[in-house]
Write the structure tokens for this entry.
Amino acid sequence: MPRQIKRVLVIKLSALGDVVLALAAMKKIRDAHPDARIDLLTTPPFEALARLSPYVDEVETDGRPERFAEWLALVGRLRRGRYDRVYDLQTSSRSSSLFYGLWPFPPQWSGIAFGCSHPHRNPRRDFMHTLERQADQLKDAGIWPDAPTAPGAAPPPDLSWILARTRADLDGTRPQVLLIPGGSSHRPEKRWPVERYAEFARAMIERGFDVLVIGGAQETPLARAIQRLAPQARDLTGQTDLPRIAGLGARAALVVGNDTGPLHLAAAAGAPTIVLFSAASDPDLSAPRGHVAVLRSADLADLPVAQVLQAASALAPAPVGA
């Protein structure tokens, strides 16, 4: 008789865009184990968003121990958790090390760790989009037999649950365009030049939209640079946590940004989205899904504002009377 699954652990550590995409797999895990307790092992930046989701019962944020003693403490806690099954959606050497740490009696394990009970065997897994790759992993784990694994087949995550718990409490009656000009500070090649964002913002304001710039507090200088050329643009950098970004995205007329986590979150919330990719990353592996237009340029400095405005016209026509 198959062992009853009463306690489940999901591992997803980072980054934000990957965490957002993993919500699709997490829904399937919840559907497969409706009566089980499901814990998520992640890191602190994603705790608030994860706690809002209906897919997990508890969130642990010590998933990236820095010292060996901390790793041992984490392994000890996982052993005491007596998990019946683990779904490693991170599938990295770091997350696989936890499987080896739980020897000689590890729980059932879905992932890529050598010797695990439910390995993801697809030799092409590293060339699949995250959504299809994780669907294929859950197919191998036996909980998603009809998983959509053809390129482009897997649907985006459903964030409808977040709307009942968040508000986009901004005044104004004009439709809103969200700009996300930031991203990882160590990956400047993934950013469209801020001067282009400013020119785009001015054009969208002239078309009748309100323009809001969002991002972390470290991206406030980008917002200020945009405001110098488009003074009516509003700076919300440092003022929007992850749930609020999703709420704003759900109500936005358009989102435009670099390949960065907040854009993935807004797109998953349903926003018509333009995402800008340079040669530094591959949209075939990680682009958001939904009402999304992907614009690619090997060097984003070569991407003209006119091309982004053309895509914006298709996704978000100018308001009536503007």
